[in-house]
Amino acid sequence: MKGFLTDEQIGILREAHYSAQRKKSADRIKAILFLNEGFTYGQTAKLLMLNDTTVRRYEKEFEQVGVDGLIECRYFGSRGLLTKLQEIGLTTHLKNKTYQTVKEICFYVENHYRKSYSVEGMTHMLHRLGFSYKKTKRIPGKLDPQKQAEFIQAYRQLKTTKRKLDRVYFLDSTHPQHNSYPAYGWIFKGTVKLVKANTGRKRLNLNGALNLEDLKVTVLSEETINTDAVIKLCVTLERKQLKGSLFLIMDNARHNRSKRFKIFLKRHRRIKPVYLPPYSPNLNIIERLWLFFHKKVLYNHYYETFPEFKNKVMRFFQTIKRYQPELQTLLTDSFQTISI
Question: Would the pTM count as exceeding 0.70?
Answer without folding.
Answer: no
